[in-house]
Amino acid sequence: MRIGWNALYLRKGIINGTSIYAEQLLKAILAVDSDNIYYLYLNREQADFPVPEAPNLQRILCPISPRTRVLRYAYEQAILPFLARRHRLDVLHSLNTIAPLALPCPSVVTLHDTRFVVLSEDMSALRRRVVIFFTASGSRAARRIIAVSEFAKREMIAHLGLPAEKIDVVHSGAGNTAPILFGEAAAAIRAHYGLRQPYIAAIGGGYPHKNIPRLLAAFARIQADFPHDLVLIGKVPPNVTPEMLTERVRTTGYVPNAHLPTLLNGADLFVLPSLYEGFGLPALEAQAADVPLLCSRAASLPEIVGEGAYLFDPYDVEQMAEAMRSLLRDSALRQALRAKGRANLQRFSWQEAARQTLAVYRRAAQG
Fold first, then answer.
1. Are residues 342 and 193 both part of a single domain?
2. pTM of the predicted protein model
3. Is 178 domain-assigned?
């Protein structure tokens, strides 16, 4: 088959669940499949997108910027179908939510979640209407839809009216695959961000639904009882005000993939307080970094973390604070969560995601 990958959405310097999904899934597919021919459609910022060269891979650099969404959407809808015809594609896989409405070949689209429907605070009203229109229309036109969790599949059926029989659930792998560093190398990475141990880690996430204000409120209730700082890794969401970032709260700003596992491993506890996730890669990244996981029980997260996390209600600040107290005071419980987290990781691999995605391509091509 001749298969296209629509990755026009990727932005330089932005590392999130959908960018990790694209990088790790494409690497895994190319590692297990040398028979099909692949065309990877990238925007002009992504000439160095970190997927290895392969004899059966051709990169197509498109003259658009992902930062101008109107032009990107127009290119996806008008020019990408032309390229699909020129390259005689058998299938085009759009890797993040929005797919061309009219293609000369079957379409596959990955929908990571439906937060643009259920969470109004994450984007402007106009952008939300545009995303809902293109997502719903492109998904209805697609031959197959990939959901990254059973929860995400249920959400698509409930909020977008998509038929269950055309949705395939393919779990992602465990996120970041960079090695954990120890000793002086780990200390140097922590020093680079001005961090001191002991600390509690969390991912800032950059969006209001990451629920960081409630995490900060919960930490404020326990900080007098413990020596730990709270470290927010990555972009701080816009609903976090400067007054919330007290002396015991550290922020790192941008952290490259190579540093993240080491920063997580250096924590005594990782907290994921999110109100909504379609999958929850940070949870698996924490388990892979061998750090005890304290996790919201919202959305997809119980499905993904299995028994390898201590769950709490993300809307209840006192319950979150009490959960942190319990884990910080109980080293045996933390050790048990580490072991259960390692066991849970066995359910997820990018190699298996690649094999299942290839099966989706075959089903799409065969009709």
1. yes
2. 0.93
3. no
